[in-house]
Amino acid sequence: MTASRTPDSTPSTRPVDADEPWMRELHADTGYLLYRLGLRSGQLFNSALQESGLRLRHYALLRYLATVDGALQRELSTALGYDPSAIVGLVDDLQGLGLVERRPSPGDRRSRVVVLTEEGRTYLRDSDAMSRRVTDDLTEPLSRDERETLHALLLRVARPQD
């Protein structure tokens, strides 16, 4: 419960949304709060990435490619949860910047594997501090232990099959 100030500047114990029952109901819905957190996270990441011309979706694709030896576009779509048509555009953008390249698939020459280039690896190394800053800004109200707990819980919810 967040305290607000009354006109005489004394703290009030009424929640900020006490006069807005529809907000109280929304804030009681964990799914809605996760949605709002996702929006806020995306906005902060996109603002931080703006200088480079990338967006959070590009960054996520690069981060994923840093964990594998390359992936088919359909694998990227499945792993990241993006529409296959969106993957094509993201890969085109990143290839245009020299951060990824398409190579023939060893198992099927008709298919192309998307791999991170050395420039892509450098970009990710250089962007680590930005990523940590955004995460720190998002989780600033939490203690270190709470941040670790939140991360562990989000992992469990995001990947229930694990």
**Residue fraction in strands:** 5-15%
N-to-C SSE string, H for helix and E for strand: EEHHHEHHEEHH
State the distance separating the first and last CA atoms: 34 Å
Rounded radius of gyration (Å): 21 Å
Secondary structure: helix percent: 55-70%
Query: What is the helix tally?
Result: 7
Describe it.
With 162 residues, this protein is mainly alpha-helical. It contains 7 helices and 5 strands; from the N terminus they run E-E-H-H-H-E-H-H-E-E-H-H. The strands form 2 sheets. Strands 3-5-4 form a 3-stranded antiparallel β-sheet. It has a two-stranded antiparallel ribbon with strand order 1-2.
Short description:
This protein is mainly alpha-helical. It has helices at residues 21-27, 30-49, 56-65, 73-80, 84-96, 118-138, 144-158; strands at 4-5, 11-12, 71-72, 100-104, 112-116.
Q: Which characteristics define this entry?
A:
162 residues; mainly alpha; 3-stranded antiparallel beta sheet; 7 helices; 58% helix
Topology:
Blueprint: E1 4-5, E2 11-12, H1 21-27, H2 30-49, H3 56-65, E3 71-72, H4 73-80, H5 84-96, E4 100-104, E5 112-116, H6 118-138, H7 144-158
Antiparallel strand pairs: 1-2, 3-5, 4-5
